[in-house]
Amino acid sequence: MFFLVHLITQDEKHWSDEITDSSRGDSEIQNQKHHIQKASGGVDCPDGADLEGPTQEKAVAVAAVAAPGGPLSIPGRNRATLETGPLPPTLYVQLHGETTRRLEADEKPLQIQNDYLFQLGFGELWRVQEEGMDSEIGCLIRFYAGKPHSTGSSERIQLSGMYNVRKGKMQLPVNRWTRRHVILCGTCLIVSSVKDSLTGKMHVLPLIGGKVEEVKKHQHCLAFSSSGPQSQTYYICFDTFTEYLRWLRQVSKVASQRISSVDLSCCSLEHLPANLFYSQDLTHLNLKQNFLRQNPSLPAARGLSELQRFTKLKSLNLSNNHLGDFPLAVCSIPTLTELNLSCNALRAVPAAVGAMHNLQTFLLDGNFLQSLPAELENMHQLSYLGLSFNEFTDIPEVLEKLTAVDKLCMSGNCMETLRLQSLRRMPHIKHVDLRLNILRKLTADEVEFLQHITQLDLRDNKLGDLDAMIFNNIEVLHCERNQLVTLNICGYFLKALYASSNELVQLDVYPVPNYLSYMDVSRNHLENVPEWVCESRKLEVLDIGHNQICDLPARLFCNSSLRKLLAGHNQLARLPERLERTSVEVLDVQHNQLIELPPNLLLKADSLRFLNASANKLETIPPATLSEETNSILQELYLTNNNLTDKCVPLLTGHPRLKILHMAYNRLQSFPASKMAKLEELEEIDISGNKLKAIPTTIMNCRRMHTVIAHSNCIEVFPEVMQLPEIKCVDLSCNELSEVTLPENLPPKLQELDLTGNPRLALDHKTLELLNNIRCFKIDQPSAGDASGAPAVWSHGYTEASGVKNKLCVAALSVNNFCDNREALYGVFDGDRNVEVPYLLQCTMSDILAEELQKTKNEEEYMVNTFIVMQRKLGTAGQKLGGAAVLCHIKHDPVDPGGSFTLTSANVGKCQTVLCRNGKPLPLSRSYVMSCEEELKRIKQHKAIITEDGKVNGVTESTRILGYTFLHPSVVPRPHVQSVLLTPQDEFFILGSKGLWDSLSIEEAVEAVRNVPDALAAAKKLCTLAQSYGCHDSISAVVVQLSVTEDSFCCCELSTGGSVPPPSPGIFPPSVNMVIKDRPSDGLGVPSSSSGMASEISSELSTSEMSSEVGSTASDEPPPGALNESSSAYLSEQRCMLHPVCLSNSFQRQLSSATFSSAFSDNGLDSDDEEPIEGVFTNGSRVEVEVDIHCIRAKEKEKQQHLLQLPAEASDEGIVISANEDEPGLPRKADFSSVGTIGRRRPNGSVAPQERSHNVIEVAADAPLRKPGGYFAAPAQPDPDDQFIIPPELEEEVKEIMKHHQEQQQQQPPQIQQQPLQRQFQMDQLPDYYDTSL
């Protein structure tokens, strides 16, 4: 590899020396066919199509078309090329499958690639070189020899189909209906002239400015007409009403466009296309995100200097073109009113800009400007000037002369001091935006008042105090995320105050703000509510959460305008006792020290719709009425984590309009049926974490109920929830259910059913069959546990909850026996609003981590590399979006005699890990957002635009996150990595998604689950608490309980000098959760069996496939004598308590998954069976198979692997692959290529090429199409004839035969047992201590 890199590096200089300016045009004249590119208002025409129609229509159509990379007619060019011979091709680079850029003569491809990979986060040169040789790197960075042909024309085909078409007027009998192929491509309607064919002539009808009308005489018929005096009309009859509507909507949008507007953004343009100049009447031209140059190297190429030919141009967008220098040609376009030159690395603005007298909007954001020319004052009509994210240290003086500009946009600059004297000289400025600077102080310089400024934005600066009294007409003030201790504001016209996330102890507003309607002072150090707040007569929203307030004044509730009061996370011991009539609609007092609520709170609050009093010390709730009638309109009531008893339940009936009720983790022992019957409008109820023994049958009265969550109770009888017509989610985990009663037909909308944590629950065949079609069905998998009595060092539990619109955008990963039982791996992935990304991460990252562990053992390096390689995998899957992720890897180093387990955590985004050590939280993660000073500095260096909601280019607020490659280099996937040695003081650690940590602090999360003995119940509790505290996003939580002792290091091999690491300690929990869950139907694969994943995964397995899987499991294991407890190998070996000798009847179980076709599936059950096959749980097309994982001595395993001619990685899985991969009866050939990831089908379904691509630069051809979605290929269909099937009626007989043969095997001499094993289905070699379905 190093030799190859050296050769290519030497060739780079040779190529660079030979590439001349004249040769750079070769690739642009190779393509002689007209490919229409992205042109809003243009005409698209496929190759070889003839444009039929009047000449005027042709002219109008072509005038609006620009063809980037289109043919250029250069006389004599071809003759010169023939005379001098072929020249080396021009080199191009493409990032993330987007635009392609021509390389300069001095640029070297390998240097560009190495710099890119280092920028992603790789730390070592050898690893960068290895990644650069991977064939999949092309999805991130790709080089071409010659400019690749664009696929833009095919992507612009919006609609197509075969329909009945008639041309011309309906009245003429000459025109007949014929079946033709019709295409809507770009802005044109294309009709084939030959039946059922796209060859030959194509009738092209320009639609811009035309019209589409309904033809009432014919069913599903539309008339398409072009514009102009010689317009033509085509009548098209569609087959269905759906197609009719789709065409009507799409064509109507096209017809409404303007012919004077052209969009050529993101087209990889290096010069202006010739076709763009066919019309001089353009008024709007969009050229953003290209690579336009001032003076192209090609002689006939048209550079930016040609833009002055557009004498009617009003709007020009040249942003993100990497110009470097200001394009002087635009100054010669007098008609321009809008000019966008953002993100072009400009360092100066020339004086010639003063000639643009009609310019009204001038955008210069994201450059390196430090000053502006004085000639800018000649722009008398300029009303908006964008100067954000530049290098200004002060306000430019020329702004004093621009009297039409009313907003100062200078966020993201380098201003340390705001001189108010300069603002005083700009009376026309009303809105000042100075966020994300480094302001430390404001200097007045004897300035009295600045009466003209009404809005001031000082967010994300370094102000310690702010005296804003000088702004006496201020209406809106933003000063969040500073270091403010005191704040003084003039309140004459104040309407909105945003001052959260500071250190405020004093807040003064004078005079009383009579116009104040919104006030947010949360996350400060306030100890009381200022008096003037109670006197603000128009205050509607008040957020004082996360302070140190001990008391709320009674007058605050008397404010007739107050609608929303957020006072959570304070130190309130009580609320005002005697409340008068209040208009508050939303009241949030969670996380205080309230023992009771005011007795008349619900009596006086007639308008109250939302009440959250969770995480207090409430023992009861106040009544809503003193009689039978009630005026309560309360719809949402959250009372989780209090001390409520059964006495409060009858009081709930005073709220007949209640829709959401959360009373989890209280002291409820019963819920009377008569009270439940009166809550008819209830839609969601959460009564988890109580001591309920039953859910009342009167829940049937709640016909609108869609969510019932009642985990962690003592429920023994399955409730009547399956009779509810709207039910979607039922969670009855961690109860004492023994049976499930189901109706004949499940509710049509049921999506989730969780029955885990019910040890006495036994489901019969019919019940399992009925639950087949539920999208997510969770149930315990029976497990024999650890028969040897070895202590469990770690055990886990996890949970997931859907967010808005019932979309589950999170996923969890839990592998208790990662890398052959020596390690463990856990993860949480959050896709925000994206469903597919979390599952891609879940299915892939464990495999990547296993591969990276083979390359480097450094904790930080292998974790960092795992995340960066995952970035490549997302690109291969065609994913443009991304997600947050956190991985925790536990590993043991047996080489160190005194060593213990090491926990390594890595995260990007807002998924985080916290470790509980000695009862205190120890954070192991870091969230990289704009508040991180080093991250903000890096973002500014790359000139990304941070929008007002704190997101990079308006996309994501995390600066380090997986995916989002189009935001590179501002957003990178390099994770934060932290490793700790586990000690006996470490109790557990928690992995959580963004929704969890946004709702719970790490201290509260640790305290909440510290005394919960079961990991599953602990994870459930965290999820329930987060939802009750206000989280509406998807949530995922993984709790891993630790039991690390002083002698937790392994010494099995130290006495014998063995170098092979021993198996992991007894890490299997008493029960393993088994999940049947549907996944998006886009070909997503499942985790590799090598990872031993027991997480939520989907499997497709036919009954015949399952039978062969069970049989092949045993055939992979050693013969009986190899594990005989009387074997001499075990008699002479010393074992530690963590790795006891595994007896012949002792085994450990885990869940495994295999992905196969379900074409022949009968749900794993035979129609004549009365009970399901043991070890198989299914929900139709997805099956979980129980597989035995045996504790085997490492040296014996190596010997067996050698005999089997299988690599270590393959046999360590403990799970065999498809039985039909090899024909029965034939020995399995050695496949050493499966040690890595090259040249084999990975267990997750993806295919790695057998040969690494040694060609860094590809020959230009058709650019590869991006995959619409799904990185994982579907597995091959199994042949049912290749499967080994045992009929149910022969099972007992086969078992007897197996037992008989096993006894004969034990009587054979040892040398016979040591013969080479063959991977086939030989029933006479199956020992009886394998617990299979046979």
From TrEMBL:
Cell location: Cytoplasm; Membrane; Nucleus
Enzyme class: hydrolase
Membrane topology designation: Peripheral membrane protein
Superkingdom field: Eukaryota
GO terms of molecular function: metal ion binding; protein serine/threonine phosphatase activity
Family matches, as Gene3D superfamilies: Pleckstrin-homology domain (PH domain)/Phosphotyrosine-binding domain (PTB), PPM-type phosphatase domain, Ribonuclease Inhibitor
Every PH domain range: 156-256
Boundaries of every PPM-type phosphatase domain copy: 795-1042
CDD domains registered for this protein in UniProt: PH_PHLPP-like (cd13322), PP2Cc (cd00143), RA_PHLPP1 (cd17240)
Catalytic activity, reaction form: O-phospho-L-seryl-[protein] + H2O = L-seryl-[protein] + phosphate; O-phospho-L-threonyl-[protein] + H2O = L-threonyl-[protein] + phosphate
Protein name in UniProt: protein-serine/threonine phosphatase
Organism: Fukomys damarensis
